[in-house]
Please model this.
Amino acid sequence: MNLSARLQHALWLIVLVRLLLPDFPSSPASIFNVATHIKNAVSMIHVEGNSPSHDIPRNSEENKIPQNDHTITPEKNHAQPETIELWDEKQALYSSQVRYAFGVQIVSAIWLAGAVAFITSFLSYLFRMRKRRRTLTPVTDPRILSVMEECQRKFGIKKPISLYTGDYAKSPFISGLIHPWIFMPEAVAKELPPSQLLHILSHELAHFKRKDMWWNTLSSFVLMIHWMNPIVWISMKRMKTSREIACDACVKEVLGEHEATPYGLTMIDFLKRFAFYKIGLAISCFSEK
Model:
């Protein structure tokens, strides 16, 4: 069954929610319960197989309690080795528990240090982006502003989105959760014709329309929590790829099928020009106040 690009990306929300929740309601149909069921079944078989009921007849003469006191074997002679063996088992169990607890403490300390490093980097990036925005130049070129207005009209976006330019980066990107803004490099603004500018700005506005900045923020929190898990890194990378494909599908839906081929050619031409600095169109995942 073929799923649309939007639906494939939307399914990643289930993964994000599951990774962000430390505890999740269990289900009897969950695959995580299979191991528990198998373990219980094996234990039942082991107990039934070792049951001594079939070896000891109830009415056997050997099970009768002897009447003479001198025939009773003192229990202490047999209990002493068993007590020593039980003590050794308890000591071994206690030692293993201590080693396990110490190992958990070490791993927890490493995870906490990594999480703090990620949060520090997150806050540092917010500060740098906020400071960087103040140094950028607002776009005043009527040609670019008219293309921007046309793009917003096509996407039905009425919220004002600021447009800045400069030499800060070589790829356009959109940033800001509360107050969104788009960065347009000077080289892109000067070299690309209006038709290609329409495609580039449409791509960034599609990210805004689809709330992709919020998706990226959630994935950033997931990486902060699960930074030690390589599978999570691979999953977030694949989710980002699905997001870009869904964004392109949104652009082609808004612009129409007649713009599908020119849009694809614009993306290819853009990558050829600026892939030396950074492959792909950048999208910031952090908010700006």
Notes: The CA atoms of residues 100 and 281 lie 46 Å apart. The two ends are 43 Å apart (CA to CA). Strands lie at 137-138, 162-166, 173-175, 181-185. The chain is about 65% helix and 5% strand.
